[in-house]
């Protein structure tokens, strides 16, 4: 029997534990989560989109695992009776200057084997009557789901399968021995033959605790959302995205129908003052020091400071936020939106200031560390799990 300890109770950690239970029956699986419940951070604060995989470099882990993950996530929901909707997505060019980038995105989508069509503005209006588009890319395989509900189902399946699920259990130390890995926590020690770190916002810290040097630093970016008031939800039928500008690090604000019928708008992206900083008032001195002492963040700031200032201004001004949405749907005004909370993206950054574009999974003796798994990690989670478990040595036993 092999003893596996998975750190992190978001969707990636739970998916890894579930895959272990399927592929390695008879082994012991323990999941450690520091919060009182599952999906407390990135998983529980995202927009619920089942991504198709349009944006990612062909052949990358993101591209391959997102496409496969989209299909397996839908199959998981069907099998377990979870609500989902394959509503499709429009990526909208609002002026002719964006057309070359839209065409490039179309070519990337085709290279990734996705059902994507370039359409004129008139056809875009058939999908989204209130959109402003000179042209658009329609991606039919994009959908929506409640990833929190997916996590609850995974936890239920794990419990039924005999896994040991521990909430309220924060990792405080890791010692690797020749024959095992000893994980110290606020609830005692756990001995593992293999440690799998899926700690998201704290993944680099767990890696360092375990004595595995990480080439990157997790830097938290807060994404703030608004939602449309109920009387204006009819302005959006599905998902409406802008054409991304490759010189900027994030996609830009967009409109997303949620599985409960609400419509969320956002997110913007501002540097958070805590790894779990869901508002400007949440400040962690330790996390701020981590950010300010990291030369990679200063290099990123020099490269994108104008973009960053724009995002901060939009964070502080509802009127600016609404104006960004009105580029996509001109009828939207500041009176049509209300605050809807925020999420924090765990973005791995290299010392030279470059964002890590792909999923980053580092393997060491008796250890696996998932060091970069922001969006589309929720979509890809079942396939990230399959990828990790398939690479584990068969003879990793006590």
CATH architecture of the domain at 3-45 and 148-215 and 357-390: 3-Layer(bba) Sandwich
Largest sheet: 9 strands, mixed
- CATH homologous superfamily of the domain at 3-45 and 148-215 and 357-390, by name? FAD/NAD(P)-binding domain
Mean pLDDT across residues = 95
InterPro entries: FAD-dep_OxRdtase, FAD/NAD-bd_sf
GO molecular function, one term: (S)-2-hydroxyglutarate dehydrogenase activity
Keywords: FAD, Flavoprotein, Oxidoreductase
Cofactor: FAD
Characterize the structure shown.
- The termini are close together.
- Strands 5, 6, 7, 14, 15, 16, 17, 18 and 19 form a nine-stranded mixed β-sheet that branches. Strands 9-2-1-13-21-20 form a six-stranded mixed β-sheet. It has a three-stranded antiparallel β-sheet with strand order 3-8-4.
- Among the domains are: 3-45 and 148-215 and 357-390, FAD/NAD(P)-binding domain; 218-349, D-Amino Acid Oxidase, Chain A, domain 2.
- β10 and β11 (181-185) form a beta hairpin.
- The protein has helices at residues 11-23, 61-80, 99-111, 121-127, 147-160, 203-209, 285-292, 295-316, 318-326, 377-390; strands at 3-7, 28-32, 49-50, 84-85, 89-93, 116-120, 135-139, 143-145, 164-166, 171-176, 181-185, 188-192, 194-197, 217-228, 239-242, 254-257, 263-266, 270-271, 337-349, 360-364, 367-372.
- With 398 residues, it is of the alpha+beta class.
- α1 (11-23) packs parallel to α5 (147-160) and α1 runs parallel beside α10 (377-390).
- The longest helix is centred in the last third of the chain and has 22 residues, at 295-316.
């Amino acid at each position: 029997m092999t003893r596996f300890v998975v750190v992190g109770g978001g969707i990636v950690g739970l998916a890894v534990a579930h895959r272990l239970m399927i592929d390695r029956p008879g082994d012991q699986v323990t999941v450690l989560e520091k919060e009182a419940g599952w999906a407390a951070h990135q998983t529980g604060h995202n927009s619920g989109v089942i991504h198709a995989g349009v944006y990612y470099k062909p052949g990358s882990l993101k591209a391959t695992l997102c496409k496969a993950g989209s299909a397996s996530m839908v199959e998981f929901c069907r099998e377990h009776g979870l609500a989902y909707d394959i509503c499709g997505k429009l990526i909208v060019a609002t002026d002719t200057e964006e057309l070359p980038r839209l065409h490039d995105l179309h070519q990337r989508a085709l290279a990734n084997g996705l059902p994507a069509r370039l359409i004129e503005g008139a056809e875009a209006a058939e999908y989204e009557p209130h959109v402003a588009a000179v042209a658009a890319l329609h991606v039919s395989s994009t959908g929506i789901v409640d990833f929190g509900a997916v996590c609850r189902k995974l936890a239920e399946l794990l419990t039924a399968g005999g896994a040991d699920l521990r909430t309220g259990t924060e990792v405080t130390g890791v010692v690797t021995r020749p024959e095992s890995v000893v994980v110290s926590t606020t609830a005692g020690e756990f001995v593992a033959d293999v440690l799998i770190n899926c700690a998201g916002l704290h993944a680099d810290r767990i890696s360092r605790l375990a004595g595995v040097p990480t080439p990157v630093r997790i830097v938290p970016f807060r994404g703030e959302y608004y939602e449309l008031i109920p009387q204006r939800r009819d302005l959006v039928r599905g998902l409406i995205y802008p054409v991304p500008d490759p010189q900027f690090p994030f996609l830009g604000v967009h409109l997303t129908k949620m599985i409960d019928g609400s419509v969320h708008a956002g997110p913007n992206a501002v540097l958070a003052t805590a790894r779990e900083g869901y508002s400007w008032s949440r400040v962690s001195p330790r996390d701020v020091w981590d950010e300010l002492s990291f030369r990679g963040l200063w290099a990123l700031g020099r490269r994108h400071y104008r973009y960053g200032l724009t995002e901060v201004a939009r964070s502080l001004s509802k009127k600016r936020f609404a104006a960004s949405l009105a580029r996509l749907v001109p009828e939207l005004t500041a009176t049509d939106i209300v605050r809807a909370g925020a999420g924090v993206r765990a973005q791995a950054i290299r010392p030279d200031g470059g964002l890590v574009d792909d999923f980053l999974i580092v393997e060491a003796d008796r250890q696996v560390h998932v060091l970069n798994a922001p969006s589309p990690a929720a979509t890809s989670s079942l396939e990230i799990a399959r990828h990790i478990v398939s690479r584990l040595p068969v003879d990793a036993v006590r």
